[in-house]
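Blinded run. Sample ID left blank on purpose so nobody reads anything into the name before looking at the predicted structure. Input follows.
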Amino acid sequence: MTVYSPPAGSVGILGTGSYLPGEPVGNDTVAARAGVTAEWIERKTGIVERHYAADHEAASDLAAEAAVRALDDAGVRARDVGWIVVATSTPDHPQPATAALVQHRIGAAGAMAFDVNAVCAGFATALHTGARLLAVPEADGGRRCALVVGAEVYSRILDRADRRTAPLFGDGAGAVVLGPVAPGRGLLGTGMGSYGHLHGLIGVEAGGSRLPASEKTLLRG
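Blinded prediction complete.
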């Protein structure tokens, strides 16, 4: 377990932003494809609707929209951002990093940009990382803000007929701007850890270097 306790009030959230694409997709639509009822989905998950990205939208598009809104809320200029950390398990491409595309889209030239893939724990991991980076003065290049974004486009990889997963996932992005805050405010601390021996419980098996995507893997779902 990695525990981080910044100096009191040193780093905090200056602004937030979010973006949901398209129109809401209700449980009736999802239920018809998954062979269940809308009532079953709500009873099992508490979810009543989700959003799906348009065909032309990828993770970086959603992330950039949320990022711009967070910067506006914080009153921070893109050129004052020193770090961009994007948490995503559905990136635009295997490479380059989705964060690099966001950096270009929002005009944050010079900011260090990289992705974090910790799936469900992605945003918390990215927030922890961004706070740690800002706590090291010599590492910020004189820019005292970090942009942390979580963005997913799970509609592209969902099996719409799988009632175990199809109702759970949608698309969207959320962002925060981290920076200096007054004493008595800010992040109190974070603790992060992993249980790698449980890696087989859930995942997307194909598409990586162990089992590259192919016609065969697509047919097998």
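Unblinding after everyone has recorded impressions. The longest strand covers residues 145-153.
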